[in-house]
Design a protein that fits this description.
Length: about 725
Amino acid sequence: MKKIFFAVLVLGQMLYGQNPVDKDSVSTKQLEVVVITANRGAALKREVPVAISKVSQKTISETKATAVYEIMNKVPGVLMVNLGNEQHSMAIRQPMTTNPYYLYLEDGLSIRPMGVFNHNALLEINQFNLQNIEVVRGPVSSLYGPEAVGGAVNLISLKPSLQPEMKFGIQADQWGYKRFQAAAGATFGKVGFHVAGLSSAQRDSWMTFSDYNKDNINARIDYNINSSTRLIGTLFYGEYYSDMSGSVNEADFYNRTYKSSTDFTYRKSDALRSKIAFEKDWNSNAQSSFTVFTRDNKLGQNPSYGIKWTQGQTTARGEINSNNFKSYGVLAQHNQKFDFLNGSFVVGGLFDNSPVDYNAYQVDLKANLNPGGQTVSSYEIIAERPDIKLVDYNAKIYNTAGFAQLNLRPVHNLIFTVGARYDNMSFDYNNNIDQSTGSKVYDQFTFKGGVNYNPWSFAGFYGNYSQGFAPPGLTSIFRTKSGTGGSTGVPAEFYYNLEPAEFDNYEAGGWFSFFQKKVAVEYSFYYMEGKNELLNVRQPDNSTDYRSAGETSHKGVEMAVNYWPSDQFKIRLGGTYAKHEFVDFKVSDNPTDPVQNLDGYEMPSAPNWVANSEVTYYPKWLPNLRAGVEWQMVSSWYQDQINTVKYEGYNVFNGRIGYQFKGLELYMNVMNFTDKLYAYNVTRGNTATATPSYTAAAPRTFVFGLQYRLQLNKKTNEK
């Protein structure tokens, strides 16, 4: 063991060029990054025992994304699936899914209350108001609560600038997309402010019936009462309306006939969020905060995914639904450092009262079939049927939580972390379909324990065990089961028996750098077991049967490599290998069904390999020019739950170039550089005659833009 230790030490000295030193004298380009999400407070990235990535403002600025997925997919281990017009699903240590296994945060506060998860929550985000993005992979339920299973995404907003500044920009592509964005901020004495807004529109795109509008505004005011006391107020308002073109059939996909089968489906959202935070620095070792917040969301849709059609039939069913909630809550937190073992802790609590109502009713449709009768050319509305209710409830959700985390440093390079949280989600409900009333409680204690060991300036290691917890969403609980309710003559049945999903995650990883810190590598290995995981069993008519039974396993490795061969080049490599399997999952009790259980099957929409890499060039011969090429790779995945058919996956290349002259920046992005025909997702039912549905990706797209920034010096009043 001593020989191995000595060999590693000598190798480190050769590659790194110095002896092991204090962490305070180390300045690696990646691991000295300060993050806040992992500990609910500032900490060095290499001193938290989790897989966490931070997307910098520089990366966000250079990406010039039209949608957040273009930024998120740069994070190793993340696949944010583009569903069109900024709609999305996610895959972080999970298959591509819309299930409530991710927590989306805005400045550390959840965008949605527990029990009202929406996989499209990030479409509300104002990309022009982002300082950076932090992504924690794996469960962080012990700090942030339920739904933080696959991971948490924390979008951190811009703060007021010290000097007065203003910036605005325009963006457009050849497919009818346009966006205008503007921001301004300044600090005068004790008061600072920042305002950012954008307005996006899509018209007559490559896909028929895919127009959308998005208008967002963010505002922030900081009042520095004194050097140690602050009041921070933020306000967000956003409106969104989109045609929902949905997926296309196989023949249309391969013929590049990007034709929506509907001209009536839509999604619309109005969102209002506000908060006031009081922050107090008692001394250099103690800080407290108290935040009061509100949310007011209205979401209405006639969803394309809600169309239920049995192959060969000339009729179908759709739905129109509305989901509205308001939230009133408080979040209190205290961070404390102490001398004993150089320790620190964070302790806090949350209370959130969120009244919610949801209703959905049936829409009768005509299905116009393609020749052969196996696929649908188009749907038409025959009648709206508000008399046939699919969901109709109102509830008062009460979320209460307490959390604590302790960090101890018994020796200089060794850090132990333990954390725990108790969550209680209770709700009183009125189910207006069966006229029942009642209450239900989901509560859970979650734990996390981890260790960091950084013995050398060029390498460090971590390990952790963490638990995840996710109660079923109310929209699943109160939906009528297929074949019951309405005009069926069968009394309505609901999913009252759905259980919370529970997860155990085991993880190890580390980092190292060499060649005078020109190369930085991060890696993580994980194994996660799921129990009572919420799974959607697709029925022959495209309806969904919800199950929360059985066991699943999720395991993989994630890696990121950053290489700076010179000041002119940066090379980024990132990716993951993962396998997601059913361990114990029964899909049928009917002895005549060909498949009884899925034990040992791979989960659908679960590619084994996902990678995103990029080469960026900053030429010395032409300062302020940047050019980059990005490669996105997603390997094949099973389209169905019974593992009969795979989609091949895809490789796609994107190019970006920009030039800045004083305050003016001109840029062009070329997305899907080679005009590759590919789909973001492909799914099909479990029957032998089921046909696939393709979520088609855009053809080659040229995005042009310009941005201007004006900054004034308050003393000289000069640019």
